[in-house]
Amino acid sequence: MKEYIRFSLVLFVIAGLASGILAYVNSISSPIIADNQKKAEILARKSVLPEASDFTEKNLDNFKYFVGIDKNKKSVGYTFIAYGPGYSSTVQTMVGVKPDLSIENIQIIYQSETPGLGANCVKPDFQKQFSGMKIPSLAVDKDGGKVVSLTGATISSRAITKSIKAGLLELQKAVKSGKSGGSK
Predict the structure, then answer these.
(1) Strand pairing partners for 80?
(2) Angle ∠(49,41,112) on CA atoms, nearest 5
(3) CB-based contacts of 48: which residues, under 8 Å, 6+ apart?
(4) What are all long-range contacts of 138-142, with beta carbons under 8 Å and residues at least 24 apart?
(5) Domain ranges within the chain, ordered by starting residue
(6) Checking phi first, is residue 27 left (phi over 0); if not, alpha (psi -120 to 50) or beta?
(7) Are 87 and 153 in contact (CB under 8 A)?
(8) pLDDT tens for each residue of 112-161
(9) What is the distance, to the nearest Å, from the Cα of residue 154 to the centroid of all Cα atoms in its chain?
(10) Who's near 103: CB < 8 A, 6+ residues apart?
């Protein structure tokens, strides 16, 4: 009986030490990870809206977006992150939008979809097809739209397309309400 108590006590001490060490490492690495994510978002923002030299954050009804400003302090477009439920994960897409609300570029900034299928959404060929599209044409080909879905990954393709369309609709509301910021 004493052995069970001793083994339990040793296991309890080891688990407590391991938990303490993990909590300490997490407290050190969390701010670094958050900072790296912010830097990655800034780079993605500049990638999808290259004409912008600076970005101003805006919010409208829990929709966060950024107004891209050029060197002359003139609005050159908008960026936002679209979140869509894919097959294996929530796919996050940085979207760059021109002032006429057509898509400039997109960049997948997070996904953990099936390798070889949905994960192909990060390939340039898939992302390029969104350039120049507006709200009415945003649907996958299997739903009558112009976006050619990834082979074997219709769910991932739909998730990206629908999330971008939903984000554009929110951005359209913000622009119409006059809360888009910058000059047109």
Answers:
(1) 65, 95
(2) 110
(3) 79, 94, 95, 96, 104, 105, 106, 107
(4) 138/164, 138/165, 138/168, 139/165
(5) 47-176
(6) alpha
(7) yes
(8) 888 888 888 999 999 999 999 999 989 999 888 889 889 888 899 999 99
(9) 19
(10) 95, 96, 97, 130, 131, 132, 133, 134, 164, 168
Burial (0-12, 13-18, 19+ Cβ within 10 Å), 127: middle
Q: Say how far apart CA 182 and CA 99 lie, in whole Å.
A: 11
pLDDT tens digits, 49-101: 999 999 999 988 888 999 999 999 999 999 999 999 999 989 999 999 999 99
Q: Which residue, chain included where needed, has tokens 């979809």?
A: 113
Cα separation, 141 vs 157, in Å, equals: 10
| Helix residue spans in 63-184 (DSSP H) | 124-128, 154-176
Residue 129 CB-density burial (10 A; 0-12 exposed, 13-18 middle, 19+ buried): middle
**Phi-psi category of residue 82: left, alpha or beta, with phi > 0 → left and psi -120 to 50 → alpha:** beta
Strand (E) or helix (H) holding 72: none
* Total number of residues shown for the chain: 184
